[in-house]
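Q: Given only this backbone (92 positions), what sequence would you predict?
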């Protein structure tokens, strides 16, 4: 499913125009990104939690040349599915 298909499903499910569904989805995504960037955990019941994850610096290897490469520390995004979400996935 892509963004356009999700917007259509939201519009049908909420009985609202596509333009309103698009604005709602874009607002939700923006707020999640904003909160996780500020190191806040975003918990959505029935779906899961979005959180910032720190990765320490490490030495990696270039697969084509075999040379060692220093990979700097960085922040990433983690998602932990809720138990309800996991149950639904396992029963389908």
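A: Predicted residues:
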């Amino acid at each position: 499913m892509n963004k356009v298909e999700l917007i259509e499903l939201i519009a049908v499910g909420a009985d609202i125009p596509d333009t309103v569904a698009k604005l709602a989805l874009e607002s939700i995504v923006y707020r999640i990104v904003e909160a996780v960037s500020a190191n806040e955990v975003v918990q959505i019941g029935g779906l899961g939690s979005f959180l910032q994850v720190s990765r320490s610096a490490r030495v990696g290897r270039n697969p084509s040349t075999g040379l060692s490469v220093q990979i700097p520390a960085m922040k990433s995004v983690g998602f932990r599915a809720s138990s309800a979400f996991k149950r639904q996935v396992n029963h389908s």
